[in-house]
Design a protein that fits this description.
14 helices; seven-stranded mixed β-sheet; Aspartate Aminotransferase, domain 1; alpha/beta
Length: 400
């Protein structure tokens, strides 16, 4: 009896539709690297806290692990009710709005929040408008879902323009994505600008996805925008958040989505299929943080603002050599270099010759965008003001 032909392996699997993560790629540059003792590595590549959470939060997780049996079992797909309620309360105070637990879902990291949102909004061949320079994981996920990314070039001040976005809208457009404070550029989008994007999305029946992972480190006081104050905000807005940066919970993978309850029902299908529920112990830590760490988080914010000021003040020495500071805020500075060589070539040399690891702008832009070859992202969350001074000293003395 003849055998059925063996199944052919798909030569173009979804993961082959996108690029290697810049974080993974840049770590490869460190393989076999040996630096002089007087030039330790300055790692400015990744925007993540390097220190563990405060002791009180760690004790809350430890106690739950030992005494709360439910922390080791499956939980609700959209997260614990008490955490959803606490986050809704925090958001209501932050945005001077009125959110409820039914408007909020907990996810396994903010990347998953974005992935779940896209899965609930888009099908094969749909389009999403993404400002560039973009957060690379957003682009990677759209690639892997067969969703076309429509790059929206930023303008003056590294800010996207709603009028330019309007010109990109087609019958296949499903959403516009904003990140504020921005990754990779650091800039804080003015509330009026965000509102204009909201109005644009609403007028075309689109969803506005706003990722505010770094909202706790915004330099402004008061609500950064007024969208949540509109009783019909969830007709248009999907809001993403991360506990990782605020409470140093990166290893516990906790993010959140605020959206219309009907939209969360669709998102629940994705979450139930992928992770079933967010990690229980991480949720315990996030809840304790929301309830107890407001003052501590205010201190963390002030430290990041101090580092931002050090970047802005110290950049003058580089400006004299032709560098330009394009954006700065939250965890990031985004800069243009003065050299003839491309940023990806310079980045690899800089690791070996100056002990500096930072990501080239080409990792945040389309392949055909020449701007990326002239730019770098500096992630300064893990270097103090002394480290920032060291960065500028090394760059001043480095000849490309």
């Amino acid at each position: 009896m003849p055998q059925a032909p063996a199944q052919q392996r798909n030569p173009q699997a979804r993961t082959k539709d996108t690029f290697v993560s810049p974080i993974v790629e840049s770590r490869r540059w460190l393989d076999g690297l040996t630096l002089p003792p007087d030039m330790p590595l300055l790692n400015l590549s990744q925007a993540a806290p390097a220190d563990p959470p405060p002791d009180g939060l760690r004790r809350a997780i430890s106690n739950a692990a030992l005494s709360d049996d439910s922390s080791h079992l499956y939980g609700a797909v959209l997260g614990r009710d008490d955490l959803r309620a606490a986050l809704a309360d925090k958001m209501s105070r932050h945005y001077a709005a009125d959110l409820s637990a039914a408007d909020v879902a907990i996810t396994s990291g903010c990347n998953q929040a974005f992935a779940a949102t896209i899965a609930a909004l888009c099908g094969e061949g749909d389009q999403v408008i993404l400002p560039t320079p973009w957060y690379f994981n957003h682009k990677m996920w759209l690639d892997m879902q067969g969703v076309e990314t429509c790059p929206l070039q930023v303008g003056e001040g590294m800010l996207p323009c709603p009028d330019a976005a309007a010109e990109l809208i087609t019958a296949r457009t499903r959403a516009i994505v904003l990140v504020t404070p921005n990754n990779p550029c650091g800039v804080e989008y003015p509330g009026g600008l965000v509102q204009r994007f909201h109005d644009l999305a609403r007028s075309h029946g689109l969803t506005l996805i706003v990722d505010e992972t770094y909202r706790d480190f915004d330099s402004r006081t008061g609500p950064p925008h007024s969208m949540f104050q509109n009783p019909k905000w969830s007709d248009t807005l999907v809001h993403l958040y991360s506990f990782s940066k605020a409470y140093r919970l990166t290893g516990h993978r906790l993010g959140a989505i605020a959206a219309h309850p009907d939209h969360l029902l669709e998102i629940e299908k994705f979450l139930d299929t992928v992770t079933i529920c967010p990690a229980q112990l991480g949720q315990t830590g996030a809840l304790w943080g929301l309830q107890n760490l407001d003052d501590w988080l205010a201190g963390e914010r002030q430290e990041l603002l101090t580092r931002r000021a050090a970047i802005e003040a110290g950049f003058e020495s580089l400006a004299k050599q032709g560098w330009r500071l394009l954006g700065c805020g939250a965890y990031f500075a985004y800069v243009a270099h003065p050299f003839a060589k491309r940023s990806e070539t310079l980045a690899k040399r800089m690791v070996k010759e100056a002990g500096i690891l930072m990501l080239p702008g080409s990792m945040f832009t389309p392949d055909d965008d020449p701007a990326g070859a002239r730019q770098f992202r500096i992630a300064f969350a893990n270097v103090d003001t002394d480290g920032i001074k060291t960065l500028f000293d090394r760059l001043k003395n480095w000849a490309a």
